[in-house]
């Protein structure tokens, strides 16, 4: 296997950034068209988003599973598939996860939409980007930060704001599909308590490691959760 040179690295980084910009544009258009709305089911809204992705991004492949979760389904971590389809209600919190649409680009993107004026959902919508930005700031402040240290920082930030972190990790290396089960995970590929290696490093195949930060905040008492996922180190 050829060792990537600086131009390879630059092109790969630019590709990841461009893919995220496309995802941001797709989400903005989903919002503008009101595709995430009460009345439709999670799979129906998934189909609408998939059709729009093909229209805007030229995607021609089917996507596995659902791209959106609503209400109590938002509490489940990635990898735990909800047991059934669900009709989206007028006051629901809804997560939109574009990972299957971006799989060919080696990246991922997720956002949270709140329908109505539910207090827990409204607070969640405000806290997700704020805590995501705080996590990114912690990453940039320490060039030797490990996956464990960043995870603990995110857990502390979430607890201070009255949330818990959902799932067993808070992100992973870009370009690798995430494992649904921690027993199947390579420890140094995740932002989680078992990764004591610096996040800034070279991957086993010689590339610079780029990271996706996945912030999943949960209020189990209110039965609501939300996700904010994007590139961590290239912005």
Number of strands: 7
- What's the main sheet like? 4 strands, antiparallel
CATH architectural designation = Alpha-Beta Complex
Tertiary shape: globular
CATH class: Alpha Beta
Task: Specify the structural class.
Answer: alpha+beta
Helix content: 25-40%
Strand content: 5-15%
The first-to-last residue Cα distance is 29 Å
**CATH fold call:** Creatine Amidinohydrolase
What is the typical, i.e. mean, pLDDT?
93
Any idea what the CATH superfamily is called?
Creatinase/methionine aminopeptidase superfamily
Contiguous uncertain segments of 5+ residues:
none
Structure explained in plain terms:
With 235 residues, the chain is α+β, with helices and mostly antiparallel strands. The protein has one domain (6-231): Creatinase/methionine aminopeptidase superfamily (Creatine Amidinohydrolase, Alpha-Beta Complex). Helix content is 36%, strand content 15%. It is built from five helices and seven strands; from the N terminus they run ααββαβααββββ. It has helices at residues 6-32, 42-57, 99-102, 119-141, 147-160; strands at 68-70, 93-97, 110-114, 164-165, 171-173, 211-219, 224-231. Helix 4 runs antiparallel to helix 5. The longest helix has 27 residues, at 6-32. The protein is globular. The protein starts with 5 loop residues before the first helix and ends with a strand.
